[in-house]
Amino acid sequence: MAAESRARVDGGTRIGILMTYRASSALIGAPHKNSDAGWKCCSGGACFMRHIRNLRRFAPGVVIPVLALAGAGEASAGGFGLREQSSYYQGTSFAGVAAGGWGLASMYWNPAAISFVPGLQVEGNVSYVAPHASIDVNRATAPITGTNLGTFGVSDIVDNAAIPAMYASYAWERWAVGVSVNAPFGLVTDAPCNWSGRFYGCYSRIYDVNVQGNVAYKVNDWLVIGGGVSVNYMDARLNQAQINGVSTAGPVLGTGQVDGDDVGLGFSLGALFTLAPGTTLGIGYRSSIDLNLTGQVSVYAPTGQNLAMFPANAGLTLPDQVTASFRSQLNPQWTVSGTVEWTNWSSLQKLVVVPQGASISVLDLGWRDGWFFSGGVEYQWDPRLALRTGLAYEISPVTDDVRNPRLPDSNRIWLSVGATYAWTNQLSMDLAYTHIFGQSGSINLSPADPANALRGSLSAQVSDAYVDIVSVALRYKFDAPQPTAVALITK
């Protein structure tokens, strides 16, 4: 029977990225009903001390390769990216995001877009994400021994999440400034450590927060340019059940943990062109962000005893991105929009972990670039209510050759609907719903790959992959226009 799992993205007080693999205590001591047949785990004192000696000897060279990568699950954008930055633009499947509009989140993709609406405004978004993905195991074997681990899969490797985002902008004459706080990356996958693919990951978490300041300048009636500086804080923890050594009684199970954090800086550039009254074209660039997670590696025995601890660091580059969008108001009722976006996920070819006092570990990722295409339409029902819908297709950076349980990503289709209702001249609310149809994909991992030598083999299928997203936003304009005085008519 497939095991259940859970995942969570936390946008609360803990800021950063947290990536964890959790080991099951059922895998230590006497053989568990789901443990590997033929491993012959023992529990006597002499046997335990023999395991400890092997753990101390093998841990530094083994724990790092196993824990080198913390991936994400069925993210709502390619790789481990998150696209839930705006309820307004979600309604069109993010068509027109860089071309300006009433949603303030456009500044995230194109800093020049903050000039679209004059005056002082603030906006808060919350997106509730309900993803689903199953992993059906065809065959799995244990490392070293090659023991058959059965076909215990995972019925749902991801779970629901709430993702917040906040924006503020002020535009006057030729200038505009803005600030955004959101989570461009993050996700969680969780599978119990008695499932057949446990040596390729049990639990992983990713948290991220990005704060960006923007400024824009109106060069003339048809061109606005803008730029921004972003600060990204990341905190990471990795913990996973693994093989720490081999004794005469067989392989020894233990756990390892990596902790680290870092702050990275990036920038954004953008331009907004007015091609005709009511028609804009926007182009935005977000730079890559280099991070060097610095912390420590800890190795634990099956009993929880800390066997070793030494400093380590891991380099990670968050990808750069180019977004191009258009928005055209055909008449007072109808507006059409579109977006093409490229993300440089192919820059993540390798992940290198450098522990002091142990061998360097290099993990090949082999990702390709990600692409996103969307088109949308909006209808102004009446002066207070606007309705919109959009369709998108996303090409994932993850292919069948490199897919793993920690990142069971695949190509997907987005279908969205949304609405904006103006309660007053100052206060408006956005609502949006999206269903993402994920394509099925295969997992084919072999110990012939040096990175998988201590993980065994895994042949599986990712199925029933989809995401439901509900988003709501409130937007407030502080300096609403004063009502026009009614002229008195006298006879």
UniProtKB/TrEMBL annotation:
It is found in: Cell outer membrane. One of its GO terms (molecular function) is long-chain fatty acid transporting porin activity. GO terms for cellular component: cell outer membrane. The keyword DNA damage does not apply. The keyword Iron does not apply. Belongs to the OmpP1/FadL family. This is Long-chain fatty acid transport protein. It comes from Azorhizobium caulinodans (strain ATCC 43989 / DSM 5975 / JCM 20966 / LMG 6465 / NBRC 14845 / NCIMB 13405 / ORS 571).
